[in-house]
Amino acid sequence: MLGHRALGCAASLALALPLALAGPAALEGASATGKPNDGSSATPVLFEWQRIALTTVFPPAPPTPIPVGTLYLGFTSLAVNDAVQTSLQRGHTSVKAAIAQAAHDVLAEYFPTATASLDASLSNTLASVESSTSRDKGVRIGRSAAADMIASRADDGRNDTSVTFDLPPGPGVWTPPPTGMLAPWLGYVTPLVPTRPVATGTPDALTSAVYAADFDEVKRIGSLTASPADRSDHDTETAKFFTTNILIAYQDALLRYLETHPLGVSTSARLLATINGSTGNAVIQTWRLKRELGFWRPNQAIIGADSDDNPATVADPAWQPLNVSLPPFAPNPPYPDYTSGHAALTSSFAQSVRNYLGDAVPLELHSSVTGTDRTYATLSSLESDAFMSRIWLGIHFRHAMDDGYSLGHRTANRVTAMLE
């Protein structure tokens, strides 16, 4: 069981929507007018451009912060989904061309240094479309979908340098590093999909018994020097495994699964849009909570426990988290504990997929940090390891994980309902 509160993961899982979102199979190979298009062969192109999006948004250098990258994956997937659904309604229209043009234009807008590579990929896709008439129609649809997306994101709050982390220091308040909080503006960006925010809790009171329990747990099992009795070698390896870029790991695994369990281009495009719309929305709300509540992370709490007025917590000035030696943010990510971004990303991804395919979706994940692969038979088992990884790393309290999962699950349910 992952959590121990009413807003915990188990309760959130119980809220999963029983949505049966079978794509309009009748439209996969023919338009609503009965005229043929290339919809039945466009799914590989959709997956190819999703992979292009992942490598464009997250280049080796300079790295895009994972929370920020969710926005641009969302912009791309939502524009592509619009292009796909529009193309499938038209006669003699290339869905392939629409996908490629929409993805190309959105990515080139926000990542201009990748334009040459994107141009080459676009040329390759368009060259595979035999009919110039259907290709040109698809190009126009893709351009229109991308232009609409780009226009809708003007002045949406991105990169607003006037937003800073400015809570006064004190017990329970996170202390930022010299570089400040990463992307404090992120919490005030216009949501990718117009759903209402999820009701959340707040960090536990420093003087409460539940806070003391979370404190003791992470102090014991999240320490750099935790004993084998408290954190096994398998636990440690799991913690390190999930320090990889989870957006890449999760979506790469899902794309490989879908290649052998085809849904058709319409449903696949909608699923990807749901995933990336959900993760974007979840991260936006998470970052607002982080900035406005500013709850301290475990290492600051454990070192400064003498100031928390809780007799059940004991300070350890020498305590360090397992994460102290792990990239990219060691010893701690440059943003507060509550609520967990890793939890919100994992749970919004998992719940989006669960709403379409159920829980029993076997995914083989690759971690670029450990260089290893892991296969999870269910989304729930993936969530369980990802949940505990942040406590074993010593960078989150359980309450931040519980509420992050609740936020992500509920956000995914709302985005799924909006896009179905």
Strand order of the largest sheet: 1-2
**Rough outline:** elongated
Radius of gyration: 22 Å
Mean pLDDT: 92
How many angstroms does the end-to-end distance come to? 31 Å
The percentage of residues in β strands lies in under 5%
Counting DSSP H or I runs of 4 or more residues, the number of helices is: 14
The helix/strand class is: mainly alpha
Provide an overview of this structure.
With 420 residues, this protein is mainly α. The protein is 52% helix and 2% strand. The chain has 14 helices and two strands. The protein has helices at 9-13, 43-57, 66-88, 95-110, 115-127, 132-152, 209-221, 233-241, 246-260, 265-293, 298-303, 341-357, 379-392, 398-419, and strands at 363-367, 372-376. Strands 1-2 form a two-stranded antiparallel ribbon. Strand 1 (363-367) and strand 2 (372-376) form a beta hairpin. Helix 3 runs antiparallel to helix 4, helix 3 runs antiparallel to helix 10 and helix 10 runs antiparallel to helix 12. The longest helix has 29 residues, at 265-293. The chain is elongated, with a radius of gyration of 22 Å.
Write the layout of secondary structure elements.
Elements: H1 9-13, H2 43-57, H3 66-88, H4 95-110, H5 115-127, H6 132-152, H7 209-221, H8 233-241, H9 246-260, H10 265-293, H11 298-303, H12 341-357, E1 363-367, E2 372-376, H13 379-392, H14 398-419
Antiparallel strand pairs: 1-2
Helix pairs in contact: 2-3, 2-4, 2-9, 2-10, 3-4, 3-6, 3-10, 4-5, 4-6, 8-13, 10-12, 10-14, 12-13, 12-14, 13-14
